[in-house]
Design goal:
Length: 292
């Protein structure tokens, strides 16, 4: 059952949310309305599409995945069933007391962790029966195989951290320009996420430029850009062309004006008829034009 929820003004200026597609942001709001008082909901993409985005052509699973990767929601399973949880739900929402008292059949994400721990403990408590002669069974019969150790002693390998500056350099941006661009982004409080980098690459391709050209263009502006949009670039090129055309027309008008002044001065000194101009008259003509 859908429920009324709160939305704060800060939602619209959240830097991390701004990296997501508009439909993903709208879906995020919609998830609040179908989540229980804990922020949990059933992860059924087709049903969520009908409930929250019925009139939009979109890949609902892709949008949910983007919210999960950005840590706005978490997708988890309990006893083979899939659910989702809006993270920090109780920090931003204040469910009605009746909603809490009624309870919810949706298990919380913490039951997923508890289930894994219980499974691991059950495996450890399995008694390995010995053969009739007292020896241990063959390795192939050992139920506690290394691959089933859910809590290993050695740290689990973690994917390498995304570093915005390093990715810039990998694609041909110099150390100097990458450092300067990162300083601009820091000054303007831009988030350096993988989503932001992917958007930069997409806009670079739209503008038919190399990443090095884009970064150079952003930095050479009077007011440097911390991000790049193909539309911004195109609009500036059009404005620059208009400005250059205006300057050219202004210069042409000044030249024409000067030419007219010469002709008027010539008419004042020599008259309208054709005459032989003596050296003295030439001098007078030159002085007259200089004074015009």
């Amino acid at each position: 059952m859908a429920r009324a929820r709160n939305i704060k003004p800060s939602f619209f200026t959240n830097d991390e949310l701004s990296e997501l597609k508009p439909l993903a942001r709208l879906l995020f709001i919609g998830l609040w309305t179908i989540a229980d008082w804990k922020g949990c909901f059933e992860y059924k993409p087709k049903r969520l599409k009908v409930q929250l985005l019925p009139y939009d052509e979109c890949d609902i699973e892709q949008l949910l995945s983007a919210l999960d990767k950005s840590r706005f929601i978490s997708i988890y399973s309990v006893q083979g069933q899939w659910y989702g949880k809006v993270l920090k739900f109780n920090k931003h929402q204040n469910p009605h007391k009746n909603e809490k008292e009624k309870g919810s059949d949706i298990p919380d994400i913490y039951q997923n962790y508890a289930e894994n721990v219980m499974f691991s403990e059950n495996l450890e408590n399995i008694e390995i029966n010995q053969d009739e002669n007292g020896s241990d069974p063959a390795d192939s019969l050992n139920l506690i195989h290394d691959s089933l150790n859910l809590i290993p002693d050695t740290p689990v390998s973690v994917a390498p951290k995304f570093i915005f500056k390093s990715e810039l350099k990998k694609l041909g941006v110099s150390e100097e320009q990458a450092s300067e661009f990162m300083q601009v982004r820091k000054a303007k409080k831009a988030v350096n996420t993988k989503n932001a980098f992917d958007m930069l690459i997409a806009e670079t391709q739209k503008a038919n430029l190399s990443l090095d050209q884009v970064i150079n263009y952003c930095l050479k502006r009077q007011n440097p850009w911390s991000a790049f949009k193909a539309a911004w670039y195109t609009n500036e090129q059009i404005e620059n062309q208009k400005t250059n055309q205006h300057v050219f027309q202004t210069v042409a008008q000044k030249i024409t004006s000067e030419h007219d002044r010469w002709r008027q001065a010539e008419k004042q000194i020599l008259g309208t008829g054709e005459r032989d101009v003596s050296p003295v008259k030439k001098l007078l003509l030159t002085e007259g034009i200089d004074h015009a």
